[in-house]
Structures are given as C-alpha cells and as structure tokens.
Write the structure tokens for this entry.
Amino acid sequence: MIQEIKPKKPILIAGAAILLISLCVIFPIEYSKASFVSDLKFTYFTLGIAMLILMYAFMGRNTYKGLLFLLCSCIFSIICWFVVLPESELSKSNSKAFELTIAIFSFFENFAKLYMGTVTGIIAGLIFLIVNARLLKDENRYQLFFKRLVSYLIILGLVSFLFAKGGDWIF
C-alpha cells in the first residue's frame, strides 16, 4: 500500500521563509537598480522556487497536477492572446519597399504575444488554484465545473487586461 505524502510543516515554513526573503530583501535591492519588470531576475527566480515549495506543501501528491494545470493555463492564455489581440495594420500593408521591416515587426509582435500569454497564464493559474482551493465548493459537479470555468476565465481576463494596460514599466 502506497502511503500518501502529507503536507509537512517544515516545508511550509521553508516556502514562506523563501517567499519573505524574496519580497522583503531581494526585491527592494533589485527594484532600486531596475527600469523594467524584466530586470528583476533574482526576484522571479526566488518567487518561483517559493511557489514550487509552497505548492508541494499545500498539494502534496497533487503537485504534478498543479504544475500540469499551470502548463495548460499558459498554453490556453497564449492561444487567447493570439486569437483576441488583432493583427496590426502595418503587417497588412502591400508595400514592397517595407517588406523586411514589416516581417521584423510581425516577428516581434508575435514574440510579445507569446511573452504576455505565458506570464498571464502562470499568474492566472496560480490565482485560480488559490481561489479553487479556498472559495469554490459545491455538491453538484456540473455547477462546480461551471463555477470553475467562469472564475478561471474572469481571472484570466482580469490578469490579461491588467498586464496589457500596465505593461512592463515599473515607474
């Protein structure tokens, strides 16, 4: 008989300690030197490690399911960004003189959609895992599925909107 892995208090404390160090020590140091959100490399790294440890502490054996959900959330978010975000008018131009410029612009536009979709998918997935574990409880499976679907789409829409309008600037 396989013994179930239970959340352990020391793992939870270690995850919380890494999270606090990341937010209270590493982030202020990097924030003073950064101009863009992408300049906060060590903050992202320690936040990622803390989230993995906390996911393991809270989810136990289901950690892999949570990581799979985050991966699916990223893929779905990327698809949404490519479908919802319209193509720019410049890429529809018929001018032969600017073909190379248009091709380069289209490449970077698609790269931006990929980047934004990945980040919003991870953030929306983490927020949904918290909301799902704490707030969504129902006896009927079909109502629960509908509540989960609607709450995930609302969370993804809000995170995507905030990321699209907020951009990459700290200041």
In short: Residues 99-134 form the longest helix (36 residues).
